[in-house]
Amino acid sequence: MAKTKQFKTESKKLLNLMINSIYTHKEIFLRELISNASDAIDRRHYLSLTDEKVETASNYEIRIDTDKDTRVITITDNGIGLTESELVKNLGTIAESGSQAFLEKLEKKDVDIIGQFGVGFYSAFMVASKVEIITRSPYSTEGYRWVSKGESTYQIEALDKATIGTTIKLYLREDSKDEDETYSDYLDPQTIKTLVKKYSDYVRYPIKMTVTKKEDDEEKTVDETLNSMTPIWKKPKSELKDEALNTFYKRQYNDFEDPLKVIHTNVEGMLTYTALLFIPSSPPQDFYTDQFEKGLQLYSKSVFIMDKNKELIPDYFRFVRGLVDSADLSLNISREMLQHDRQLKKIAAHLEKKIKSELEKMLSRDRDTYIKFYKAYGKNLKYGIYDNFGMKKELLQDLIMFTTNKTDEYITLKEYIERKSDEQKAIYYATGTSRSQILNQPQMDAVKEKDYEVLLFTDDIDEFMVQVLQTYEDTPFKSLKQSESDLLDETKKEALKTQEKDHKKLLKAIKKALGDKVKDVKLSGRLKESPVCLVSGEGVSLEMEKILKQMPNASDIKADKILEINPNHELFTALSTIHEANPKKIDDYATLLYRQALLIEGYEIDDPIAFSNQMVKLMVEASKHS
Ligand code: ADP
């Protein structure tokens, strides 16, 4: 008995759009169904290596037949087939991912994206008024027939089927005068041949059709293989157009955008392999989360082995997608063994070098593209430097970039060093939440005078990375929010010393009022307009303290905080006067000053109410004097 089931809402909507919109490229249905058949064969082959329930087939193939009398096109594969629940799940519902986005694109008639959304099968309804699937999976003892007219329901029933695989029958629509395509054309073997050549030539399994040929006045039927079966990555580079590679990428890796970069490499010798790698234009949504799975597809002699091989690509280049095809890998290896394969390790080492050199080339020859790349993946490179205690810093340090106080264009560390004067002994950086926030920080005062260039750090990872880098070309990194001593010349240092001596009591009183909130209270030589600033000692910086606090296993590590006061500011004069007149009053001023410095640094203050009360108190007092 056939069971009748409803399509899920999304699917219904999609079917409607497919059927009722007029597309200029209805012919792509064939490409979609062949691609599904090829994937199904890939999966059967792969499972046959790892699951004893699945037997391999002696000849993998896809067959196409056309019948002019019944107006039916039949596409048969000996791939993995579908179980009853897979029929319901895979063909009765649209894959969640991207379906909504797909509908939006479809409404704009952007038909070329059909295959990228896991909805290719539905394109069958663009040419067929009824679709029938007869299929059997090795995980099921029975076969199934799935039939639908592309309206709101479909039927499923069990049937006897001896062989594993799938047959799809398309009952073509009637030709109509109003439409610019005649469905009957698809019944012509010549049309099928042309379409296979055009869209599916690189499919790695033979796509066969039985054709009648005239030989010595006798009609003979012979099997003809319509595709060359040369996978795109095996074609000579000279024959490959960007367009073909981009299309391949988008279909194979479900992206709407062309890749930012294609790396196609052929290596022969001790180790023989082909790699076709892509850097997507935008990172996937989950790229910076734990959900993201890196990896390259692995093929052996053009036969698919596995989908996401993690060994082939290091974490710092995890944005690279693509595949490796090597004749040196044994076909019968299990997944576990693959992980440790020595050949794989060697290929991975090659690829690492290759990717790095391609990125460097991009940086020197096509800076605009590199900046696009860097905006998308720069953070990942910085993590790469930080990771494993800086094991890869040599490899990655020339690939990172920053904007500075002098320019909002990205510059490399090398460029920074080349630009700085010899007198400047360090690479300065300042950390903050945004460019403008950093530029307004009090600590920037000193470099303004010196005309130093300062790298702007706005990513959480930046300071952690610098702790690992320590130096670049023997020049140390220095935070603007740590010791100022090398920013000041000798006379200024001397003058500060004298001032500190003169105001020793006041500074001590402030320190005492603040207790262990600060490690030290000092006079500042760097501040010009600002009355105070907060800096840190060696080790954990103020920004790092904030980041560590937000981490899942929040750590209590604190920065050594130093309160710097500007001795040339009116406020300091006021403090001195008050301290002399009434030493007890200094406690309030000290905490107020400290809380202000915290606020400037973007900290939250522990007790905003106390802060506000203090302000009020002072304002009232001030009013009495005016
Ligand atoms: P996609 O192939 O992009 O996932 P489709 O709508 O084309 O989306 O197909 C939906 C699902 O149906 C496939 O993912 C696959 O699981 C299954 N499927 C389609 N065609 C076949 C086939 N010939 N053999 C086995 N499974 C198939």
The set of bound ligands, ions and cofactors reads:
adenosine-5'-diphosphate
Q: Could you tell me the strand content as a percent range?
A: 15-25%
Number of domains: 4
Give the overall form: elongated
Q: Quick check: average pLDDT?
A: 88
> Within the CATH hierarchy, at the fold level, what is the topology of the largest domain?
Heat Shock Protein 90
The tally of beta strands, per DSSP, is 23
Major sheet strand order: 1-6-5-4-7-3-2-8-9
Quaternary organisation of the protein chains: single chain
Biggest sheet character: 9 strands, mixed
Given the structure, what is the number of helices? 20
Low-confidence stretches: none
Please explain how this structure is put together.
The structure is a single chain. 38% of the residues lie in helices and 21% in strands. With 626 residues, the protein is of the alpha+beta class. The chain has four domains: 3-224, Histidine kinase-like ATPase, C-terminal domain (Heat Shock Protein 90), CATH 3.30.565.10; 232-370, 2-Layer Sandwich (Ribosomal Protein S5, domain 2), CATH 3.30.230; 378-487, Rossmann fold, CATH 3.40.50.11260; 490-539 and 555-624, Heat shock protein 90, C-terminal domain (Four Helix Bundle (Hemerythrin (Met), subunit A), Up-down Bundle). It has a nine-stranded mixed beta sheet, with helices on one face. It has a five-stranded mixed beta sheet with strand order 10-11-14-12-13, sandwiched between helices. It has a four-stranded mixed beta sheet with strand order 18-17-20-19. Strand 19 and strand 20 form a beta hairpin. Helix 2 (28-50) packs across helix 5, helix 9 packs across helix 14 (461-469) and helix 16 (504-514) crosses helix 19 (586-600). The longest helix has 24 residues, at 342-365. The protein is elongated. The chain binds adenosine-5'-diphosphate (ADP). The site of adenosine-5'-diphosphate has 18 residues, from helix 2 and helix 3.
